[in-house]
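Subject: AraC-type DNA-binding protein structure
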Amino acid sequence: MTTLEAIRTLPTNRTAVPYLKIVHIMSGAVRVESAQGSRRLLPGMAYALGSGRWCRLVPSSQVRTWTVYANERFMRSQMAWFLPARNRVRAGLHPDDWDGNPLVFTFAMPTVRRLEPVWRQLSVMRDAASPPEARAARTTELLAKWTHEVLPAFLAPERSGRPLPPPPFPVSGRLTDPALVGQIGLATRLLREQMHETWTIERMARELSLSRTHLTRLFTRHTGVPPMRYLTETRLTEFTRLVEETDFAIERAARTVGWSDPRVASAWFCRRYSCTPSQFRLNPQPHRSNEDPVPGGRPMDGDSLTGP
């Protein structure tokens, strides 16, 4: 999409361009001829013509114009976005109804003067050394400003003042399940705070006044695992912390989280870390300080390099 300012004193040839064009009259008068006939345009008027259609400008003496050239498919899609309610638009002006034949608009001169800076910004954008994505975004922004000013000319007078019913909001109900905040929230807090106690699915169901089946269904839905497996994972996470951060014996760490048999704790630990708790404690993870050079200038196995 681009714009061009011109001052003409002589008639133009018949020209057809592969773009939709809108000629805005700033001063003077001009007769515009096309295959559909001719129209005399005065300041404040605009003449729109679909791509590939010819027209000829015949100035009365001197005329100053701003012409907008735009990809027709782009312009139609944008205008359809700005004019969503087809029944509020004047007959033949909605982008889905327009056949590309000449359209004549009349705008107040204050509106036209407010639009001229928009056209000039579009015009000089061709000289900007900005990336195409930035130019596309800026073009859409300026088109929105143009549309805001000319919108009344598109709307049917009997409907333009009527507010539209609000469109459906994408969220029409709660996005959370009260069960997660209620029974499941209570259950997970209970297990974390009292993991050292002896739990069974029956006791848990009684505490929450739920059936075993419903409790299992809720746990699986909201935590991804059944209740007793959730308890095991919770115990294992805390057991790992005790192994790593304290000098508790393995047996004491196991009892602290609710496993009376340390072998059970070790078995679950091995499943997660592929080593026993004692091996884990005796073999700290290798680390390298920020100042240590990388041998050979390349990362070793297990290392990773990040950018600045």
